[in-house]
Amino acid sequence: MNLKPIITDTHTHLYSEEFDQDRDEMMQRAINAGVTRFFIPAIDAAATPSMYDLEQKYPDYVYLMMGLHPTYVKDNYEEELQHVEKELARRKFYAVGEIGIDLYWDKTHLKEQQIAFKRQIQLAKQYKLPIVIHCREAFDEIFEVLEEEKSADLFGIFHCFSGTYEQALQALSYNMKLGIGGVVTFKNGKIDQFLNQIDLKHIVLETDSPYLAPIPYRGKRNESSYLVNVIAKLADIYDVSEEEIAERTTQNSKDVFGI
Questions:
Q1: Res 222: pLDDT
Q2: What is the spatial distance between Cα 79 and Cα 55, in angstroms, rounded to a whole number?
Q3: Quick one: pLDDT at residue 2?
Q4: Residue 28 main-chain phi, psi, to 5 deg
Q5: CB neighbours of 200 closer than 8 A, spacing ≥ 6?
Q6: How far apart are CA 220 and CA 65, in angstroms?
Q7: How far, rounded to the nearest angstrom, does the alpha carbon of residue 130 sit from its chain's CA centroid?
Q8: Measuring CA to CA, which residue among 93, 101, 102, 103 is closest to residue 124?
Q9: What is residue 187's predicted lDDT score, i.e. its pLDDT?
Q10: Range list of H helices, 58-164
Q11: pTM above 0.85, yes or no
Q12: pLDDT single digits (tens) 151-193
């Protein structure tokens, strides 16, 4: 019997209120599509209870991260970082994320974002965990911090990678995998033009659901079952079977998360 390969969604906000009306059905659609590993990024302390509820409900499928998302870095960021530290000390997580710098919405807290990013990288090293990076209009600022922190124990995923080929190579130089999702299916996404020059061993799949739905769902709510559309596009780009994309990217996710 030929079993379907396991598909891994390395980045999905399953606790989002966008799923409150049909979360069980959405999960079932994903599982039916072969997606059985869901890695859940944190955003701030307020999201933590919902994440724990999700883990309790789907213990065989859900793996949690802990971190402070850059757009939630406000004046109370010290308090938020204390929450991250306390939770990391208290129980097991699979990554510190999502963390990073976001200059798209607001540049007023750039300094605090840089401090929070750095501090959380150091926590990841302390707990020997990968980091999951959120980068929006901030490649230079992100790379500056990574350059300062680079070491054998710095590794992780550049979530929702949407940069250039040169930026991809720079991300890889810091032991990062590239998180590839719906953007690869967009006509103006651009990453599809050079991705086949990046070895498949550096790629992991993600949805960032409920955001960034792939073609043909662009503009609608994203969900993990739509990873099959991303896989189809990557199979085309790499000229390999969809099964190989699923298998290789799941193995890559295991290399990062250790599970």
A1: 98
A2: 24
A3: 53
A4: -65, -40
A5: 238, 240, 245, 248, 249, 252
A6: 26
A7: 11
A8: 93
A9: 87
A10: 77-90, 110-126, 139-149
A11: yes
A12: 999 999 999 999 999 999 999 999 999 999 999 999 888 999 9
Which amino acid type is present at position 18?
A: E
Q: Would you list the DSSP string of 137-200?
A: S-HHHHHHHHHHH-STT--EEETT----HHHHHHHHHTTEEEEE-GGGGSTT--GGGTGGGS-G
Do residues 46 and 19 lie in contact, with contact meaning Cβ atoms separated by under 8 Å? no
**Structural contact between residues 204 and 10, judged by C-beta atoms closer than 8 angstroms:** yes
User: Which residues, in sequence order, are bridge partners of residue 257?
Assistant: none
**Cα-based angle 69, 74, 75 (whole degrees, multiple of 5):** 145
Residue partners of 1: CB distance under 8 A and separation at least 6: none
Neighbouring residues of 90: CB distance < 8 A, sequence distance ≥ 6? none
37 forms beta bridges with 8
Residue 32 pLDDT exceeds 90: yes
Interhelix angle for 227-238 vs 242-257, to 10°? Answer: 110
